[in-house]
Design a protein that fits this description.
There is one protein chain. The chain is an alpha/beta fold and 158 residues long. The protein is 29% helix and 30% strand. The strands form three sheets. Strands 5-4-3-8-9 form a five-stranded mixed β-sheet. Strands 1-2 form a two-stranded antiparallel sheet. Strands 6-7 form a two-stranded antiparallel sheet. The longest helix is centred in the middle third of the chain and has 13 residues. It is globular and about 40 Å long.
Length: 158
């Protein structure tokens, strides 16, 4: 698993569907020179993710920006079309909705979990703070928990 002080993996890619079209981001380029809050959910449109996790970052986006955060990003092992639809349904215009369709980014940072019948390989629930692509804080949730990756907890770290 990626650790505090380590850099996001070179060459890791994430997708994003914007109003202008499909983008593929190399995470090292996307996060270069920026302060980033990156949080991951097991699945778009799922109960905790839709009722609590993403909404917390949407509501507190201005406070994150006021603390110098350049990018607030949500990643999930879903396709970019699902991530855009979920972001639109949650009024998440201040959050980059990033797709890890094949779980390659999630596997590269060692935060995958096999959910079997739920959806196969998914991401563990976590939130991290990155400075210029280097992890400064990483909060990974215990299975079926939602405590340490909440927006309020991450905001307090900044």
């Amino acid at each position: 698993m990626i650790k505090q002080g380590e850099r996001v993996p070179d060459g890791a890619m994430l997708g994003e569907l914007t109003n202008e079209g499909m983008l593929t981001h190399c995470v090292t380029d996307l996060f270069a020179g920026k302060k980033v809050v990156l949080f991951a959910v097991p699945g778009a449109f799922t109960p905790t993710c839709s009722q609590s996790h993403l909404p917390g970052f949407v509501v507190l986006a201005d406070q994150f920006k006021a603390k110098g955060v350049d990018i607030i990003a949500c990643v999930s092992v879903n396709d970019a079309f699902v991530m855009k639809a979920w972001g639109d349904s949650q009024n998440a215009s201040e959050v980059m909705m990033l797709a890890d369709g094949d779980a390659s980014f999630t596997k590269a940072i060692g935060l995958q979990v096999d959910t079997a019948g739920f959806g196969g390989i998914r991401s563990q629930r976590y939130a991290m703070v990155l400075e210029d692509g280097v992890v400064t804080d990483l909060n990974v949730e215990a299975p079926k928990m939602f405590e340490v990756s909440k927006a309020e907890v991450i905001l307090d770290l900044l």
